[in-house]
């Protein structure tokens, strides 16, 4: 298949599909971290280039639930509107099979209901990070290696997963797809 991995600079998902023999390409405004088939530029300019499958990771800063309050305080409505517009353009692309991946969205009448929620610990990683998938003509992703996640309890009794503490705090670092999830996508959808 000819596969587009939209908004991916890491190359992790692209390489998982490439390893299974697909013509996989990533596209992002940033250069790729792993040399390979990468288009550095605006993904909207190549959406109609005959892709069989698109896996997209649109920027979540202005549409995710975790930042909704801060976005309101900072009066980021124009950024929110642009993020929603971009999300919907990817969601409605003329590609037969689509998966959009993002954290739980803020309450918004324009973002469609997601198809499923996955966690890295479903795919062999000791991390907790709820991730929504919006699927078009694809079956739900099935867990491949459930692991028991470990926890840290603060002196106040609040329970945090250890993965939350181990996970890098930068937006760039947190936007990379876990390799176990990428492998599951390639195995199950490729």
Q: How would you portray this structure in words?
A:
By secondary structure, the chain is α/β, with parallel strands linked by helices. The protein has a single domain (2-189), classed as Rossmann fold. 25% of the residues lie in helices and 21% in strands. The protein has 6 helices and 9 strands. The chain has helices at residues 12-18, 68-73, 77-91, 162-166, 171-174, 179-189; strands at 2-6, 23-28, 38-40, 53-56, 97-102, 116-118, 131-136, 151-153, 159-161. The strands form 2 sheets. It has a 7-stranded mixed β-sheet with strand order 3-2-1-4-5-7-6, with helices on both faces. The protein has a two-stranded antiparallel ribbon with strand order 8-9. α1 (12-18) runs parallel beside α6 (179-189). The radius of gyration is 17 Å and the shape is globular. The mean pLDDT is 87.
Strand content of the residues, in percent? 15-25%
Helical residue percent band: 25-40%
Report the radius of gyration as a whole number of Å: 17 Å
What is the 3D form?
Answer: globular
């Amino acid at each position: 298949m000819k596969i587009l991995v939209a908004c991916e600079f890491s190359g992790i998902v692209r390489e998982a599909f490439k390893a299974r023999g697909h013509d996989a390409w990533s596209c992002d405004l940033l250069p790729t971290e792993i040399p390979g088939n990468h288009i550095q530029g605006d993904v909207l300019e190549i959406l109609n280039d005959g892709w069989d499958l698109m896996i997209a990771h649109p920027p979540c800063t202005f549409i995710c639930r975790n930042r909704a309050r801060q976005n309101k305080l900072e009066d980021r409505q124009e950024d929110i509107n642009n993020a929603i517009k971009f999300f919907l353009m990817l969601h409605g692309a003329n590609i037969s099979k689509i998966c959009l991946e993002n954290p739980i969205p803020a309450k918004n009448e324009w973002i469609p209901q997601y198809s499923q929620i996955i966690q890295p610990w479903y795919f062999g990683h000791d991390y907790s990070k709820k991730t929504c998938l919006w699927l078009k003509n694809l079956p739900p992703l099935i867990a491949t290696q459930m692991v028991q996640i470990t926890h840290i309890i603060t002196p106040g009794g609040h329970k945090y997963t250890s993965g939350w503490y181990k996970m890098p705090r930068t937006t760039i670092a947190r936007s990379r797809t876990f390799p176990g999830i990428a492998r599951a996508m390639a195995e199950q959808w490729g």
